[in-house]
Amino acid sequence: MSRSRRLVVLAGPTAVGKGTAAAYVREHFPEVWFSVSATTRPPRPGEVDGVHYHFLSDEEFERRVAAGEFLEWAVVHGRAKYGTLRQPVLDALAEGRPALLEIDLQGARQVRHTMPDALFVFLTPPSWEELVRRLVGRGTESEEERTRRLATAEVELASQAEFDEVIVNDDVQRAAEHLVSLMRSH
Prior knowledge:
Number of strands: 9
Shape: globular
Number of domains: 1
Number of helices: 7
CATH superfamily: P-loop containing nucleotide triphosphate hydrolases
Strand order of the largest sheet: 2-7-1-8-9
Strand content: 15-25%
Distance between the termini: 19 Å
């Protein structure tokens, strides 16, 4: 068995491209293990349960929280719950696999308490205008939801100093490769 690895936590504001950067890593660096988050929000078009997220009812999510099955969990954008199941993360680390959590700021703060030895990486947009363009261009949220997410993003952008590393996502390939180089060096 390989030596245990250090967990890497990737966070950043909504629409910054965390999912896109993670997809690049997933495609080009298959040795990286990805946590599949649980959520109470409904699936978006094309999302598959167990692949993109574990889609849980509010009741099932609460049962698992009470049982201590989450490494972190939070209510995001004032609506849906998201969380990381603890055991798959511990299993991947014990196997010596490079492990990546792609989570929101609240979750990253919880992991800071539950796994303080993790490496915390903040993905930031090249500018506020670019973040707005990406969110609107996604076309997956209503105007009300975009407004809510942008208000959350303003607060999240102010938290960069809490992270060990900051990567500007001005180019997905460059940002993803930088993230993997950090995973390899830590």
